[in-house]
Amino acid sequence: MNHLAAPGAGQLPRVLVLDDDNFMLEMLKDMLHAIGVRDVFTEASTRHALSTLAEAGPNVLICDLALPDMDGIEFLQAAAARGFRGSVILLSGMDSGVRDAAGELARVLGLRIAGIFRKPIALDQLRSAVVC
């Protein structure tokens, strides 16, 4: 498996977006393309996202916290256990306490948090988190 670290200066990342809302997936994909990211993988299922994580080797993961088959924290645990070393952007409509707690748990798992945002994320927030 190829697990890339965060991209270097001037390098655009390979991004995996995980959200069970297809509208949100398309919106985030369009936003990522608007800021110049070309390698965008979208998944609505955590099972498929784990496969994509292994096969595509993204170095940025944008993850919703409220997912039907496995919540975002469980997914992040699985990603960390599989050796994901890229950066993570957490998105959720949940309150800030839940988002912040999820970020702390992700850090404990050894994941690098690039941002924690309330849905919907603004283009400038996404740009600053993805192109760090």
Give the tags.
42% helix; 132 residues; Rossmann fold; alpha/beta; 21% strand; 5 helices; globular; 5-stranded parallel sheet
CATH class assignment = Alpha Beta
The main sheet comes to: 5 strands, parallel
- Briefly note the CATH topology name: Rossmann fold
Radius of gyration: 13 Å
The order of strands across the largest sheet is 2-1-3-4-5
Q: Which architecture does the CATH hierarchy give at level 2?
A: 3-Layer(aba) Sandwich
Let me know the number of strands: 5
What is the 3D form? globular
Q: Helices and strands, in N-to-C order? A: EHEHEHEHEH
Contiguous low-pLDDT stretches (5 residues minimum) are 1-7
Content-based structural category: alpha/beta
What kind of assembly state do the chains in view correspond to? single chain
Average pLDDT level: 91
Number of helices: 5
Strand content: 15-25%
Distance between the termini: 24 Å
